[in-house]
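User: Fold this; tokens only.

Assistant: Input:
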Amino acid sequence: MTGASARKQPSGLLHFGVSIKPDRNGGGYIAEYYAPGLVPEAVKENGKVAIFPDKASAELAAYRVRDTILNTPRRYSDVKSNAKNGRYDRLTGPEFAALLQETGITLTLFSEIYGTTMKRAFSWIDGKNDKGEAEFAPHPARVLLELFKANPRNIDVAEDVTHKATTPR
């Protein structure tokens, strides 16, 4: 990673706040804001890092920018465009069945852990749903099965988490 996305939040990822630092060229202060889900970023004016004459004005500016960002409604287009960077190769029915078999678990247990119905899981194996439309296993199913295959202890962990999170109907 490079640039802003490579920067890390200050310790305690679940903090909201600001950080004030002296400008390394002298003559003022730079303000950064951070919050859960945001990459720490310096306050900018006209696309350039803003330099403030004193700590108080820098702090106030950082809080204003951070609060504006957090209080601005998210547009669907923003969320949609940032969701993922590419398309995943989805498992075909035979690939899904083979990977499931390599993990050594049953389709019933997989469906329970994954939180889907047996009917849906069978449609992934068949490669089509009730309407005859193409139906492939979603990417998280591949991830889960690969984790199970890599370390069978992950099956026990997933099963334990599922049982703890499940309430009877």
